[in-house]
Structures are given as structure tokens and as C-alpha cells.
């Protein structure tokens, strides 16, 4: 879908994130002091829980980029906040079009965001996190730009799938970098500079900022509860009266080497895990076994394929796609 002139004007107005022309040395020194003070205060807060990374499609190497310009780099230790944006365009316009516009029309090295989330909830990485991208005029050096596809003006809001994906991404990044969502770790673009981004309902009206933070906190709370379990991931194989499912074990060898789950045959041991993958159909593990594990608080996935060759191909495809699970959302 091509941009019309109105879209281009929105793009230019909402994405005014290039570097500022000049700043007085005194203000720079005061800003540095304030940053250190904020770091000191945040360090006194309990560390946010680690949340597993959601599925992320990395397009950072294939999006349009300047042949002559490149963004400056930073240490990941410099990251202090996540900045939420909307694209200010129809949701059908994706990161390829935006990157092309920003590179060719604005002269930027590449797209201005680190992540882009489609209306369907697909998370796309658009720049390495070490990149100091031009997504806001204030604090590019210390922030990560997360853009949700769409123009969230008037009554328009992100889709539920976008909010779920944004929450999963933000919860993961907060845990990875020690950011506290309600202590400045997640902010809207318009909280840093005078722009109506990520839309008119972010902090007013519906206030979807609160819904995003609520979903982030739910994921963090769930991760905190699971972290108390003795086993992270248990791969449950079938055995009975001296017989065991050796073909399934052999089929899973590459998967086991890649993800290193605890492997065994004990349902009771599996019940102590956060995640359980049942390897076998209902002839090996009746539905009651799955129900027992779920009642014990496990998150359960079943792989029912009984043909050893197809099972091996399935496990190898999971390894190649870096998928620990097929259906369980982390």
C-alpha cells in the first residue's frame, strides 16, 4: 500500500526524531547529573522479574538503509527506557515503507525504531538494540523505540493483539535491562516531546497506557510465580513395564541438545516444572495426565506425532526456527 500526501505529512510530523541542533553545556551537565540520580533511585527498587522473549521476526538487515550513513552505537547497559510510538499511518503500511521514507526523504541512516508491531501482533525487530536510532528528539542514546502500526487519533486504538504483543515485548525488555515499567521504564513518545504520539488516547480518555502496563505486570507476576518452581522445562516421555519410547527420544536428540530441557518419564517430577512438553498421543498419555499437570500449575504442550521420522522432522524444524514450543506463548 502506497502512502498518500496526507500520510507523508503525518509521517513527517510524528516521526520528528532527528538529533537536536545544539544544547548548552550547562544543561548537558545538569541532565547528566539527573540521569545518575535516576539510576541511583531505580537501583534501590527490586529487580523486575525475567520474562522469556516473545517470538520476534528480525528484519533489521533487510529493511532499506542508507548506503553512506549509519547510526552511532551504544552499550546495552545505557538503555534506561522503552518509548512507545504509533506509526501515525494506516496499519497496512509496514516497516519497509516507513524505512524507505525515512532513509530517502529524511536522510536518516535507517528506520527510526528498534521494534515494529503489526495490527496482527507480529513483532518485528527493525534495528539492533545497540543502535542509537532517531525515534525521539530527547533520549535516543538511552531508549528503545517500539512502534505500533496504526494512526491512534481520536477514538482509534491499538488492537488487542498489538497490546498483547507490546506487553510481551516490554515485559521481556524490562526484565532484560532492569527497567521498572511504572518508574519511567515505559513511556509514550509524547511524554518526552510535544507530539501526539502514540495517539490521543494514550494518557487521556481510554488511557491505553494503563492497559498496556496492566498486561506487562500480569506477565511479570506470572513469571515471578513460575520462577519459584524447581524445574523450568520438562520433556516427558512414555515408559511402561520395562518398555520406553526410545524412537521418540532419538527423534528429539537435536532438540534436547539445543534447548536442554530436563528429560524423563516421571509424571510427578514433571508436575514440579514450569513447562511440560508431553511427547506422545493419548494412547500413551491419557487426557487425565495432561489435566493433572495443569492442575499442578504447569503450562503444558503435547506433541502427538507417533511416526518417528515425522517426529524427528518436527523437532528439527523447531530447532531450525528456534522454537522451544509450538503453541505455548512465552
Provide the β-strand percentage band.
5-15%
Bin the helical content.
Answer: 25-40%
Order of helices and strands: HHEEHEEEHHEHEEEHHEHEHEH
Number of domains: 2
CATH architecture call of the largest domain: 3-Layer(aba) Sandwich
Average the pLDDT over all residues and give the rounded result. 88
Q: What's the tally of helices? A: 11
- Measured on Cα atoms, how large is the radius of gyration? 23 Å
CATH topology of the largest domain: Lysozyme-like
Low-confidence runs of at least 5 consecutive residues: 4-21
Shape: elongated
CATH class of the largest domain: Alpha Beta
Main sheet characteristics: 6 strands, mixed
Oligomeric description of these chains = single chain
Question: How are strands sequenced across the largest beta sheet?
Answer: 1-4-3-5-2-6
Structural class: alpha/beta
What is the straight-line distance between the termini?
A: 32 Å
Descriptive overview:
The chain has about 325 residues and is an alpha/beta fold. The chain has two domains: about 5-15 and about 45-225, Peptidoglycan recognition protein-like (Lysozyme-like, 3-Layer(aba) Sandwich), CATH 3.40.80.10; about 230-320, Rossmann fold. The protein has eleven helices and twelve strands. The strands form three sheets. Strands 1-4-3-5-2-6 form a six-stranded mixed sheet. A four-stranded parallel sheet has the order 10-7-11-12. Helix 10 (about 285-295) links the parallel strand 11 (about 275-280) and strand 12 (about 300-305). Helix 4 crosses helix 6 and helix 8 (about 255-260) packs parallel to helix 11. The longest helix has 19 residues, at about 25-45. It is elongated, with a radius of gyration of 23 Å. The relative contact order is 0.12.
